[in-house]
Specification:
heterodimer, A: 182 residues, alpha/beta, Aconitase, domain 4, 7-stranded mixed sheet, 7 helices, 7 strands, B: 424 residues, Aconitase, domain 3, 2 domains, 5-stranded parallel sheet, 31% helix, globular
C-alpha cells in the first residue's frame, strides 16, 4: 500500500494504483448530478451496472458506450453540483471512469466520491482537451498531459478525506474504527 | 477575541469545543432525514458497515416522497426496503402522501434553533430558516451518522447577505432568492455557509424564509442560515417540547464576504433553462409559450404559496393547451388548503391536484413533459432532463408568476393579477 504524503500539496486518491493512465473526456462547468445520472433512472435500482449505462446521457447521448475503462472525466468549475445522490460517483465508477479531474467540485459530490473511493483531483483543467492522454500521479498530486507534454499541480484536500480514502472508503473506515476521529 | 458566526457556534457546541472556519470537527447530529432516492443506498452502506442497530432512532426520519405513490415495481421494492428497515430499527417513516421530506421535518418539530441537522437530500439547507445548521449529505455519510450519531464536518467560512428595502407588490421570497442566486451564481458560495439578514428577512413569514434558504444549495452553499425571532420561536414552540438554544452571530464575527441586496426595485424574476443562475426579469421572457406549470415542491408548496396561486386563479381557467399541476408540500397544508377552499379554486380553474410529495420536480412521475415543451415551475432546479425529459425546457419562478403564466398559456407578469382573497 502506498502511503500518502500528507504535508505535500497532495491529491485525493485511492492508493492503488498510484499512477493512472487514460483518456480525457472533457465536459464544461456546472456538471450537475442530474446530468451524471438522471432521476429517471436513479430511483429505480441499486444496481450500479444498470445506472452506468446512462451516465452523462442527457448531455452526450451514448456516452457510456464510448467509455474505455480507465478514462478520466475532465471538467471545469463546480462538478457534481445539485442533488446529493450518491449514485452519481457510484455510476461513474461502475462505468469505468477511474478519476474525475476538475477546476472545482460541489461539496456533497466531493464527499460522496471520497466515501466511495472514486479519486478526485482539483486543478486547472483549462489546458486539457478532449481525447488528450493523461497520466495521474496520485501520490504526488500531479496530472500529466502526455498529449500536450505539460504537468499540472493539484490542490490539497482535508486530511480526514485522505484517511478515509487510505482505508478504502467510509464503509471500511467505519468497519475498522467504529466511529469518526479527527 | 474574534467573534463567531452562527455556523462556528453551532458546530462548536456540537463538537464540544471552540471552533473556527476551516477546522475539521466531529460533531453530534441532533436530527437526520433520508428520502426514497437516498435511503436505500444508506441502508445498504449501513449493513456493509456491520451496523446492528441505529444509535438514536428518535433522531432519524425516513420519508417516501420523491417517487410516491410508487410508479414501478422496482421502486416499490426500494420503498419496501425502507419500511422494513424503519420498522426493525424503530424509526419514524413518513409514507406516501404525507408530504415532502423538508416540509415534514419542519412540521413535525424535528428541527429546532441551534440544532445540527443532516439530510440525505441537498435541499436539507432549507431548515437554516429555523436557525439550525442543516446540510445535505450523501447516503454513506448518512449511514455512518445513523450508526455513530456523529459526522465529521469542515467548519465553513460564512458569506453574509443583508436584504433590505421594501418588497414591491407581486414580488415574493422566490424572486428575492432567484435574484440572489443570479448575483452569487451557481458556485459562488461553494463550501460556505450563508447568513441571510436584514429588515426584509425579519418581515418575511417563516414559509417565505424557508423558500430563500431552500435555494442556498443552488449557489453551492453548505447551509443558508437565519437568526431566530419571535415568529420562529412561536412556530417551533407549538411543534416540539425539546429544549433548544437559538444562536446569533457575534457582532465582530468574521465573514468571507458581505453583500447588500436592495429589493425595493425588484421585479418578478424567471430562471431560464437549463441553469438556475440564468435569471432575468419576467418582462424579458413574457410571451414565451408554456405547456405545463408546477406549483409545489420543497421550495414553494406551502400554504401561503397556494393562497397566492389561488388568488390569481380564482374565477379563471387555465389556458387551453396548458396544464397546471398543484402539489401541496404536506398533508397538513393540503388539508388547510381544502378547508380554505383553495383546492376547489384549483380544480374549478382546471388544475390537476396531486398528492403531497415531490410530484414531477424530479422527473420520475406525475407530469413528465414531452419533447420541446416549456414548463414553468416553482421548483428549485431547471437542469436539462430534470423533469424526466432532456428535450423539454424548464423555467423557474414564484407561484404567482407560474399561476399567471398558466392562465395566459405563456409566461406572464403576475403583478397585473394581484388582488385580495378569492372569496372577498
Amino acid at each position: 500500500m502506498v502511503a500518502f504524503e500528507r504535508n505535500r500539496k497532495c491529491v485525493i486518491a485511492r492508493p492503488d494504483p498510484p499512477v493512472l493512465k487514460g483518456t480525457a473526456r472533457v465536459f464544461g462547468d456546472d456538471i450537475n448530478t442530474d446530468y451524471i445520472i438522471s432521476g429517471r433512472y436513479k430511483f429505480k435500482t441499486l444496481d450500479m451496472g444498470e445506472l452506468a449505462k446512462h451516465v452523462m446521457e442527457d448531455l452526450e447521448p451514448g456516452f457510456a458506450d464510448r467509455i474505455d475503462k480507465g478514462d478520466f472525466i475532465v471538467a471545469g468549475r463546480n462538478f457534481g453540483c445539485g442533488s446529493s445522490r450518491e449514485q452519481a460517483p457510484l455510476a461513474l465508477k461502475a462505468a469505468g471512469i477511474s478519476a474525475v479531474i476538475a477546476r472545482s467540485f460541489a461539496r456533497i459530490f466531493f464527499r460522496n466520491a471520497i466515501n466511495n473511493g472514486l479519486p478526485l483531483l482539483i486543478c486547472d483543467t483549462s489546458g486539457i482537451d478532449d481525447s488528450d492522454i493523461l497520466e495521474v500521479d496520485i501520490g504526488n498530486g500531479l496530472v500529466r498531459d502526455l498529449t500536450k507534454d505539460s504537468d499540472i499541480k493539484c490542490e490539497h484536500v482535508p486530511g480526514i478525506m485522505l484517511t478515509i480514502l487510505d482505508e478504502g472508503g467510509l464503509v471500511s473506515f467505519i468497519q475498522k474504527h467504529g466511529k469518526f476521529r479527527v | 477575541m474574534m467573534g463567531r458566526t452562527i455556523s462556528e457556534k453551532i458546530l462548536g457546541a456540537h463538537a464540544q469545543k471552540e471552533v473556527a472556519a476551516g477546522e475539521i470537527v466531529v460533531a453530534r447530529v441532533d436530527s437526520m432525514m433520508a428520502q426514497d432516492g437516498t435511503a436505500p443506498l444508506a441502508i445498504r452502506a449501513f449493513n456493509e458497515m456491520g451496523g446492528e442497530g441505529v444509535s438514536h432512532p428518535e433522531r432519524i426520519m425516513f420519508c417516501i416522497d420523491h417517487n410516491a405513490p410508487s410508479p414501478l415495481k422496482s421502486v416499490s421494492e426500494l420503498h419496501a426496503l425502507m419500511r422494513k428497515f424503519a420498522s426493525e430499527n424503530n424509526l419514524e417513516l413518513s409514507d406516501i402522501g404525507e408530504g415532502v421530506c423538508h416540509q415534514l421535518m419542519v412540521e413535525k418539530g424535528r428541527v429546532l434553533p441551534g440544532e445540527l441537522v443532516i439530510g440525505a437530500d441537498s435541499h436539507t439547507c432549507t431548515y437554516g430558516a429555523l436557525n439550525s445548521f442543516a446540510t445535505g449529505v450523501g447516503s454513506t455519510d448518512f449511514a455512518a451518522a445513523m450508526l455513530t450519531g456523529e459526522l465529521w464536518f469542515r467548519v465553513p467560512e460564512t458569506m453574509r447577505i443583508n436584504v433590505r428595502g421594501k418588497l414591491p407588490a407581486g414580488v415574493y421570497a422566490k424572486d428575492i432568492a432567484l435574484s440572489i442566486v443570479g448575483m452569487i451564481t451557481a458556485d459562488g458560495a461553494t463550501y460556505q455557509a450563508i447568513e441571510f439578514s436584514g429588515e426584509v428577512i425579519r418581515k418575511l413569514s417563516l414559509e417565505s424564509r424557508l423558500t430563500i434558504c431552500n435555494l442556498s444549495v443552488e449557489m453551492g452553499a453548505k447551509v443558508g442560515l437565519m437568526e431566530a425571532d419571535e415568529k420562529l420561536l412561536e412556530y417551533v414552540g407549538k411543534r416540539s417540547d425539546r429544549k433548544f438554544s437559538p444562536v446569533k452571530p457575534d457582532r465582530n464575527a468574521s465573514y468571507a464576504a458581505e453583500h447588500e441586496v436592495n429589493v425595493g426595485e425588484l421585479t418578478p424574476l424567471v430562471s431560464l433553462p437549463h441553469q438556475v443562475d440564468r435569471v432575468l426579469p419576467v418582462e424579458e421572457v413574457e410571451g414565451t409559450i408554456v405547456s405545463q406549470g408546477l406549483i409545489g415542491t420543497c421550495t414553494n408548496g406551502r400554504l401561503e404559496d397556494l393562497r397566492i396561486s389561488a388568488s390569481i386563479l380564482c374565477g379563471k381557467k387555465i389556458a387551453k393547451g396548458t396544464r397546471l399541476i398543484i402539489a401541496p408540500a404536506s398533508r397538513e397544508i393540503m388539508l388547510n388548503a381544502l378547508r380554505e377552499g383553495l383546492i376547489e379554486v384549483f380544480i374549478e380553474s382546471g388544475c390537476v391536484v396531486v398528492p403531497p410529495g415531490c410530484a414531477s420536480c424530479v422527473g420520475t412521475h406525475q407530469g413528465i413533459p414531452s419533447d420541446e415543451e416549456n414548463v414553468i415551475s416553482t421548483a428549485n432546479r431547471n437542469f436539462k432532463g430534470r423533469m424526466g425529459n432532456p428535450s423539454a425546457y424548464i423555467y423557474l419562478a414564484s407561484p404567482a408568476t407560474v399561476a399567471a403564466s398558466c392562465v395566459e398559456g405563456k409566461i406572464a407578469d403576475p403583478r397585473k393579477y394581484i388582488r385580495g382573497n378569492c372569496r372577498s
